[in-house]
Design brief:
Keywords: Membrane, Transmembrane, Transmembrane helix
Strand content: under 5%
Shape: elongated
Distance between the termini: 46 Å
Pfam families: DUF2062
Order of helices and strands: HHHHHHHH
Radius of gyration: 20 Å
InterPro entries: DUF2062
Organism: Candidatus Desulfacyla euxinica
Transmembrane segments: 24-54, 74-97, 118-151
Length: 172
């Protein structure tokens, strides 16, 4: 399938999402929140769990996690650690941090990266999680309002199209 055709396909699927705009936007915000967390293999499960708990859309929660993708994993992990280390006042761990970042840059399996972070100890884990939590909150709150607006506009657009397209000839 051509790339442009694939983009059009996903665009159509996106605008056809059904549900209340609040639920759809809430799911997207949970997905983006967990997508910013450095918990690569568990992001989707956590986002869907949050959507279930808070009555958001599970589909958009899963979609929102793709804010984190192979193109930006390095930057998300880098900034989550640096921000978390700054907030927690952690200095050092440069060799371990460099090893983890090299693994991410080289595209190592996500479970290997998680094992390295966990093996580095509680301070390293805390720095990654605190930084990811801060980044997730900072990005997910505005994303909720942005996607609420988007999903409301899609609903209005969809309803305006319903009114124009129903002109069938009926027999009497």
């Amino acid at each position: 399938m051509k790339f442009s055709r694939q983009i059009k396909y996903y665009y159509i699927r996106f605008i056809r999402l059904r549900g209340d705009p609040h639920e759809l936007a809430l799911g997207m915000a949970f997905g983006i929140f967990t997508g910013m967390m450095p918990i690569m293999p568990f992001q989707m499960a956590l986002s869907v769990g949050l959507a279930l708990l808070f009555k958001g859309s599970k589909i958009t929660a899963a979609l929102g996690t793709w804010v984190s993708n192979p193109l930006n994993w390095y930057f998300l992990y880098y900034f989550s650690y640096k921000l978390g280390a700054f907030v927690l006042g952690i200095h050092g761990h440069n060799a371990i941090f460099s090893s983890i970042m090299t693994g991410i840059r080289l595209g190592e399996d996500s479970m290997i990266i998680v094992e390295r972070i966990l093996a580095a100890g509680g301070l390293m884990v805390s720095a990654f999680l605190v930084g990811g939590l801060i980044m997730g909150v900072a990005v997910s709150i505005p994303s909720y309002f942005i996607f609420l607006y988007v999903f409301k506009r899609i609903r209005v657009w969809r309803e305006s199209r319903k009114g124009r397209g129903n002109w069938r000839v009926t027999e009497h």
